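job 3f2a | input accepted
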Amino acid sequence: MFPKLFLLVGLLAGCFTNSHAQMNPDKIYDSSIHSILIHPLNKPLAMPVVVLNEGSPLQVSFDDFKADYQDYNYAIELMNANWTASSLSSFDYVKGFNQIKINSFSVSSMASQHYYHYQFSFPNVNCKPTKSGNYILKVFKNGNANELVFTQRFYVVEDQVGIAAQVQEPFDGNISKTHQKISVQLDLKQIYSLQPEQLQLEVIQNYRYSDAIKISEPNFIRGNILEYNKEDQLIFPSGKEARWLDLQSMQLVSDRISRFQKIQDKNYVFLKPDMSRNELAYYSFNDLNGNYLISNTDALQSENQNDYAYVVFTYLPKDHLPLVGQNLYLSGAFTNNTLNKNAEMVFDPKLGVYQKTLILKQGYYSYNYILRDRLDPNSLDDFTETEGNHWETENNYSILVYYRAPGTQYDSLLGFSTINSKQCW
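job 3f2a | predicted structure (425 res):
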């Protein structure tokens, strides 16, 4: 337990960072791989988190356009809190084997795009993590770990820290109606001996991992309770409820679709142009906070009967002019919430619009547009011009608590929790 002399640490500087520079563990190395999903079983919208030594597994699935059986295997690797590799051997954190063959697959049917659908659950009797922390799932070919197909993050938590959190209105009047502030309390009474300076708190808004905020020092310590509540920390832009695309049917022109078209035997879906919402009044509706669901209304099974389409997104800038010195991105789970070339919109000077084409499986998608200054990127301004920011917006926040125990070589994950801004009102 903490000595009682730690009753109060008043308004510490509270070191915090935004994690733009950290490694991105979600990568696709084979362009034939699509629709990678990793989530708790029967919870397709939840973060890929499992509790150490408990039975509930993650479900992993992906599609391969090669449409022929491939010899795929998977392995896991323990990472540090910043997604750099830990110095431990796999023998130190894996029970069983760390190269497992993927045997469960099905062949697409009733779809013009042929693909093989692979699916498996993890952890299982053949491979279990023995330590908490950040992990990367690696899928590779022919038993050769160097022939990577894709990598995806997941988390293993020990669930030893009690987490209480709230979404609050920032005190600063300049952002009080446009941003949301997260206040966090950690209860460490289950831990016998712990050095609070070795703790690290991370908060993620709507699974936008690249814009997570990390804090290494609490503002107050009262006995076993650590408080993170400084006015200039854990501040996030509120945005608006996410835009949506209903692609569950390849027959029905839903409200966001302009037209379907066959081009060289491929399905193309042209969406109605999007434009800035920053001057539109806020109104509330149910959304997926940038996530998506694979589903359809044309067939009985979603896994191997859903078709694919080349979906053309269009954004109409003011006066049909390019945004000078700024990059425009599609943000959502369908671009791995990563602001890279795969998500960047391209300006067409002939049409005076930005466009981006993504290959998407039938389902229901949500997304936003993010604008970043090339020379001075600032995540707090992401939605200011494209979406607008409103304090009332419903957002999910994920909270992770890391600890590097003295003498250890990895960052354990002692706590995880999610809160929703609507539940705090």
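job 3f2a | Residues 159-238+394-424 form a domain with the Immunoglobulin-like fold (CATH 2.60.40.10).
job 3f2a | closed
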